Amino acid sequence: MTDRTPAAQPYLEIRNLWKAFGDFVALRDIDLDIHPGEFVCFLGPSGCGKTTLLRAIAGLDPQSRGTIRQGGKDISTLPASGRDYGIVFQSYALFPNLTVERNIAFGLENTGRPKAEIKARVAELLALVGLPEQGQKYPAQLSGGQQQRIALARAIAISPGLLLLDEPLSALDAKVRVHLRHEIKELQRKLGVTTIMVTHDQEEALSMADRIVVMNHGVIEQVGTPTEIYRHPATLFVADFIGETNHFDAQVQSGRVQMAGLDLAAVTGGHAPGSAVRVAIRPEDILPMASDAPEAENRLAAQVADMEFLGSYWRAHLKVGEVALVANFSMNAVRRFDIRSGAAQLVEIPAERVLVFRGASA
């Protein structure tokens, strides 16, 4: 699959890239363009090929066939040492026997720069990642979040054209992850460096990426902005992997989908009447209605089986006839409509939010 190609010349061009380990094909016919200054996330479940693709770009695990061009230059056969990138691993990979300053300076020292220039650059980077007083400490004396910032400073020390991040936040606790992902994104914007991050965390990708590359079984399922990926998933896998869905087998009938006990107006696209489809409905797209509200296209009389309080919203388990639906209602909606377990509740599902995919075999 090829992503849309804007007018600007791509910074990274990947064409017909395959990677096999013996008989196992880890990447299959990958075509992808990444543009200057973009923050792109490779997202997918374990074993989908996202880290393999990152390592192929880095030259750490070269592709079996296909080409990679960076800044107009073919780097397909260059060794990792000959490529222009900085990389941050999940494990940080800091040198435990070197101070923070020496860790950051390591790559700079190999370029033969004057000591005064290196010292100034290290001080600049420590200030940039918010750790100006930590230069004389050793990695073991820092928290996980601080170590990750130092790894990031080391990766950008030589001003690489490409920054590669391999699940950089997965070893940190939830609060630190949320804080650091904001800091990394702000730093990337400030530097303007083209960045690729591998993650299996949907929230991380949605909050950080300019575009997301969703991968599954070694192929690209969809490329798009976070909004496009979430609101307009191209496949059932994308709809199910990113966010939550109710989904059912159904049949298309002239602008509608019919399933056991439900008949809904929907945007059926190119699906012919009579064809078997899979329908997906996100919990937040089930909207509560007042009993005296005007008629709506997909207005349903539901029974609230039970409710779960999840902090910022309530999750309601609904029954519409024999069909079970999960809906997410805001705190305000629950108060306004007096939604409670055991009560009847009218809901609406906008036709454009009924996602229709090819049949159950998908």
UniProtKB/TrEMBL annotation:
A GO CC annotation given for this chain: ATP-binding cassette (ABC) transporter complex
Q: Which Gene Ontology BP annotations are present? A: quaternary ammonium group transport
**Record PROSITE patterns:** ABC_TRANSPORTER_1, ABC_TRANSPORTER_2
Keyword annotations: ATP-binding, Cell inner membrane, Cell membrane, Membrane, Nucleotide-binding, Translocase, Transport
Annotated ABC transporter domain residues: 12-242
| One GO MF term attached to the UniProt entry | transmembrane transporter activity
Presence of the UniProt keyword Nucleotide-binding in the record = yes
Asked if the Swiss-Prot or TrEMBL record annotates the protein with the keyword Membrane, the reply is yes
- Spell out the InterPro entries in the cross-references: AAA+_ATPase, ABC_SmlMolc_Importer, ABC_transporter-like_ATP-bd, ABC_transporter-like_CS, AminoethylPonate_ABC_PhnT2, Mo/tungstate-bd_C_term_dom, NA-bd_OB-fold, P-loop_NTPase
The cross-references to PANTHER family, in alphabetical order and at most eight, read: PUTRESCINE TRANSPORT ATP-BINDING PROTEIN POTG, SPERMIDINE/PUTRESCINE IMPORT ATP-BINDING PROTEIN POTA
Q: Indicate what this protein is called per its UniProt record.
A: Putative 2-aminoethylphosphonate ABC transporter ATP-binding protein
| Organism expressing this protein natively | Szabonella alba
